[in-house]
Amino acid sequence: MPEIRTLANAIRALSMDAVQAANSGHPGMPMGMADAATVLWTEFLKHDPADPAWPDRDRFVLSAGHGSMLIYSLLHLTGYERPTIDDIRRFRQLGSPCAGHPENFLLPGVEATTGPLGQGIAMAVGMAIAERHLNAAFGDELVDHRTWVIAGDGCLMEGINHEAAGLAGHLGLGRLNVLWDDNRITIDGATDLSTSEDVEARYRAYGWHTVRCDGLDADDVRRALAEAAADPRPSLIACRTIIGFGAPNKQGTAATHGAALGTDEVAAARRALGWDWPPFEIPGDIAAAWRELGGRGASAHSEWRGRLAASPHKAAFERRMAGDLAEGDEIRDRMAEMLAEPKKVATRKASEDALGVLTPLLPELVGGSADLTGSNNTRTKDQTPLTRDDYGGRYIFYGIREFGMAAAMNGMALHGGIIPYGGTFLVFSDYARPAIRLSALQRCRVVYVMTHDSIGLGEDGPTHQPIEHLTSLRLIPNLEVWRPCDRVETAEAWEAALQRRDGPTLLALSRQNLPQLRDYAGRDGLRGAYRLKAAGAARRVVLLATGSEVEVAIAVRESLEGQGIGTDVVSMPCWERFDAQDAAYRADLLPADALIVSIEAGATLGWERYTGRSGLNIGLDRFGESAPAEDLFKHFGFTAEAIVPRIVVALENQGDQ
Amino acid sequence: MPEIRTLANAIRALSMDAVQAANSGHPGMPMGMADAATVLWTEFLKHDPADPAWPDRDRFVLSAGHGSMLIYSLLHLTGYERPTIDDIRRFRQLGSPCAGHPENFLLPGVEATTGPLGQGIAMAVGMAIAERHLNAAFGDELVDHRTWVIAGDGCLMEGINHEAAGLAGHLGLGRLNVLWDDNRITIDGATDLSTSEDVEARYRAYGWHTVRCDGLDADDVRRALAEAAADPRPSLIACRTIIGFGAPNKQGTAATHGAALGTDEVAAARRALGWDWPPFEIPGDIAAAWRELGGRGASAHSEWRGRLAASPHKAAFERRMAGDLAEGDEIRDRMAEMLAEPKKVATRKASEDALGVLTPLLPELVGGSADLTGSNNTRTKDQTPLTRDDYGGRYIFYGIREFGMAAAMNGMALHGGIIPYGGTFLVFSDYARPAIRLSALQRCRVVYVMTHDSIGLGEDGPTHQPIEHLTSLRLIPNLEVWRPCDRVETAEAWEAALQRRDGPTLLALSRQNLPQLRDYAGRDGLRGAYRLKAAGAARRVVLLATGSEVEVAIAVRESLEGQGIGTDVVSMPCWERFDAQDAAYRADLLPADALIVSIEAGATLGWERYTGRSGLNIGLDRFGESAPAEDLFKHFGFTAEAIVPRIVVALENQGDQ
């Protein structure tokens, strides 16, 4: 068997060659961490390249995602079907699964999309939570694996690592092990340009175990990884490395971080490493050794399959990991039962009611809140806390860590077996936004429960009142944003969220009570928009509204109809769903010959998609104020008294043209 | 002189009474921290209630902004003109300066808007940087003050505190002192529901000094504050307190955090505290003592005025602190000179060129980048680093801390004397977004230099390619978003950013080279949108484009004109500026009888404001891909070849109607 250094040099060669061919990419990290990664992947990581979806595999997250050639090399060398060497030759080219940063939806074996720094480690925390939770449900026979991370200085400077590490320490996630590529270099130069902290002391303050090693000495890496694996706490393994190791004239400098080395330096590195083969060629003995080491996990996998086949939990476990919902009809029946008697409640309370139906039927639902449990109404009576002493609990007190919560939820969803949901105030979606984006990009079934969705939250004032948030979230591709107007639409929003297998859903819910406006039978809300009230008189106006403003729209309609102005009310809880309806449906709701008016207590920009240049948009294009909610709705003109005259004027102006 | 406890009880009484009157608010924090805050404000804080704008005052930031009644009480009791007792009676009511959370634009003495947790401490870091920087420029005679913060558990759990504390430790900001209200309670209950960390050990790992005291024992608080003030490092003062101290049945529980105590408990607290006066009444001797203590700083202020009057720096210092720009005409002349010879460069490079003109003329410009200096082109040749050994430097290596950078810039702008700008990739505006929102809400002159503004960044792929970001930023009230198309518009964007005194500006800049499309003479870009090319043939089409797509629009126009289809090209670098133009100007650019087409390599939602329901929006409503930029522009249809046929079809459909 070749030495670790020789095996590692295959990673170095592939990395510098692929970056050179693309003339774009990051050779420094893979070259610096090649030895440590080789020890990890050949001696510690439990995986089976023949089945990247093996549920009990260890999870590996390359949090320093710019070093993507590291994972592409590892997957290729250990025998995964993809990437092929041709995929690697086409690194960073259109259509190659070897994208600039690792994308979970392009390559099996890539557990998470990384690149936005710090989020990999935070998703790994979620994976480690999922592992312990499923272990509590299914036992050591079926669930008994580790989560490994490679993180860089950037990951450890980003604020989210604080939230993630604090949560991991609190929950005692001993199966989480983070290798820190401690190369003392960032893009701008030496790390001491911008940081002076003692990272290990900081992690110990979170309750982590820390250990240090020479990341370029395989024996020392082995010692450190063994110590980490044995320790019951989460571990930070500080690996002192040299960025770009092997490139004789550039190693140890920021020049190797994010650019091709250049053909001369690549040639010099070949000489320095004793790597005599042409670009993209791995000699037979080294390739064979890698394959053999990649095959180490096959027997463990086979034994695991045996245990699964014999397990009484087999069907339940497979259903959970496949992400299939149990009890589809029963959910609908119980929702109908729950909604039979109309109630005037806040939609956050309506969401709690829906969860009261769902959580007993769906054990995969694991909830939580960023320290706003009583405000977000996210905990149901049958959920006990998930703690270090009881990982079987189904409610997580995330603490004041919105971003960490969102990333952890992504990690749980990526791990499989869990449908996570979590709450905060809608305005603090901003704190979690980079992870919400990654939910959407990674196609994760995650449900965001965002309450206090407008100036309707009242006295807390402009820092807590969402204005731009609804539409700024609607802008994120593959995210469905729901703003239900009552209990029925809230139940539909939850159904829609669970039905989605390929993306996240965000529920924007009211603090204040809202009347129940229709019955559940037609389930019209699932189309994203529908005619809630049809015009009585000849239709001249269509009112579009969401959430708490649907009630306002109904009052406006009554007044207009009283003046003989026929008016539809269209409730529009989910733009993305409406946009996906066929043209005839959309045209029927938005007729060309009517004045289309939007009413939403938020920014107007974006509503013109439906109201056009001649429509009227009633909204709020400024920050809010601190006052009781009712005063604010009056102050900012969200009342029939204020809106009706504006519509009448708009109709007159339209008539003039 | 009454005892500290007696003085502090005035804060407790005002806080519980105001919250009770509003039946909304957070009494727990002010009641717990009243003693510590009294010691701080009467014995340590340098301020003069008669002049809240005294430039050399200590800055006090209530990072735990929900405890707003603490600062309202302190301002009132120490003798600030506002809030009056009537303002406090109207706590959280429409029009009261005593908003739910402290707002810097409502009350002099409120140095920063707080409430979004963690940002107060991070802004304080910026204030402390500003103090040292101005000290380096103007000396101890004029600039010699401290920055004090009160933070809660939430502030210390949020990720941003990690970034802020790391930066403060690195820069050795010894005049920054943070009092941590260590009351072991969060909204959901005991802190041990969600955290187990050793906060003080963590802060020591950042290079901070830490000290602990009994926050309810004035002598012990005094000892700790004195120790903190004497230590050359930034200090964390852990104050063990009891939330809601004084409310006998509720203190020490989450019940006091965010709700009125109830009339019975308020009455019980009066008895427990020995506070026999009616709501909102402060007995004469206690009021007088507070006033007297509030007046302590007047003599220091007077001496400082003397030093200012005698200083050779007087005019420069006053200009800087007033935020007046020097050298207005010279800037324009030099810009014109710089732009005289057209060049094809990336707008990030154009921004560097503009900064090359500006930084020598405007010493108040302090730049930086979140570890992307060479990519953001934010450093000019005459900027040396601002370090712990040379606070006079004008370039800050912020490290990989986008959110911390943005909040620190807010702090610098709030401090005064500095116009901060800082860079990262546009996609990572998401990381900084909560602070960008606070720039806008607080009306701070901060300039965000966000480069790599589209799929034009190429190979790094979807995690690094902005899609929804431009319009999601345009949605934030009071933020001006610029996406210039060339060197001239980039210079105009910088001019506009500096002219704004009451809000932030964000520049979205290209990685790739763009041709210079016009000359600088008319400075048309300052109107936000203007006709760059007028139709030759009879106008049937108006193309709206920004940034790199203006060049594409020009090619589209040439092709359409070649087919006899008259086509305007409108360059639209700043929507907010265009929306502020008069109706005639806007109507002239967007005629009702033309097909309006938007071209922007980002989400289309929002463009309908200008293109209407019958217009055509060319954009990207999905995530990007990893490939060279030119391939992506072709792949996603941002070429004349792909766009022209779509316009021709749209014209035909329009003709059919």
From TrEMBL, chains A, B:
Family as reported in the entry's similarity comment: Belongs to the transketolase family.
Q: Give the catalytic activity.
A: D-sedoheptulose 7-phosphate + D-glyceraldehyde 3-phosphate = aldehydo-D-ribose 5-phosphate + D-xylulose 5-phosphate
Sequence ranges assigned to domain Transketolase-like pyrimidine-binding in this UniProt record: 345-516
Q: List the lineage, top down.
A: Bacteria, Pseudomonadati, Pseudomonadota, Alphaproteobacteria, Sphingomonadales
* Name of this protein: Transketolase
Task: Enumerate the residues binding thiamine diphosphate.
Answer: 66, 115-117, 154, 183, 257, 428
Q: Name one Pfam family in it.
A: Transketolase_C_1
Question: What are the binding positions for substrate in this chain?
Answer: 26, 257, 348, 375, 452, 460, 464, 511
SMART domains recorded: Transket_pyr
Domain of life per record = Bacteria
Gene Ontology MF: a single term: transketolase activity
> Any note on cofactor binding?
Binds 1 thiamine pyrophosphate per subunit. During the reaction, the substrate forms a covalent intermediate with the cofactor. Binds 1 Mg(2+) ion per subunit. Can also utilize other divalent metal cations, such as Ca(2+), Mn(2+) and Co(2+).
Q: Where does Mg(2+) bind?
A: 153, 183, 185
For this protein, the record's SUPFAM superfamilies field holds: Thiamin diphosphate-binding fold (THDP-binding), TK C-terminal domain-like
Please name the InterPro entries in this protein's record: THDP-binding, Transketo_C/PFOR_II, Transketolase-like_C_2, Transketolase-like_Pyr-bd, Transketolase_bac-like, Transketolase_BS, Transketolase_CS, Transketolase_fam
Q: Name one GO biological process term.
A: pentose-phosphate shunt, non-oxidative branch
Listed under subunit, the entry gives:
Homodimer.
- Any single GO CC term annotated in Swiss-Prot or TrEMBL for this entry: cytosol
Q: Which cofactor does it need?
A: Ca(2+); thiamine diphosphate; Mg(2+); Mn(2+)
Q: Which residues form the active site?
A: 402
Give the EC number(s) listed in the UniProt record.
2.2.1.1
Keywords, A to Z, come to:
Calcium, Magnesium, Metal-binding, Thiamine pyrophosphate, Transferase
Positions of the site: Important for catalytic activity? 26, 257
**What role is this protein assigned?**
Catalyzes the transfer of a two-carbon ketol group from a ketose donor to an aldose acceptor, via a covalent intermediate with the cofactor thiamine pyrophosphate.
